[in-house]
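Notes from hallway chat w/ T.B., transcribed later so I don't forget. T.B. wanted the structure written out for a chain they're using in a teaching module, and asked if we could keep both sequence and structure tokens in one place. Agreed to drop them here.
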Amino acid sequence: MGAQAGAGPERAGVPSGGGAFEIRVRGRVGASLTSAFGELTVRLRPAETVLYGAELDQAALYGILDRIQALGLELLEVRRLPGTAGAGGPDTRAEGP
């Protein structure tokens, strides 16, 4: 069987240009796993971990999603943030115990 035409990432709604993204995973990621996301801002919530990335292009976003899967984390949500780089993300790298 051949590949479906138009089934690439652009069809899935992922822009090829850069943008700011918020990625939520279930549970509180510990310090050892947090270091796997050094290019992102990490904010710990009671029941989830929120990763913020500014100016992520398509390749970077897919790389982060691959890392999440490889680490066995449960992906809850990926959302493109409105506005410019860093919109909606905190200024600190890690927060909370």
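Follow-up for T.B.: Strands lie at 19-26, 41-44, 48-56, 75-81. Might be a good example for the class.
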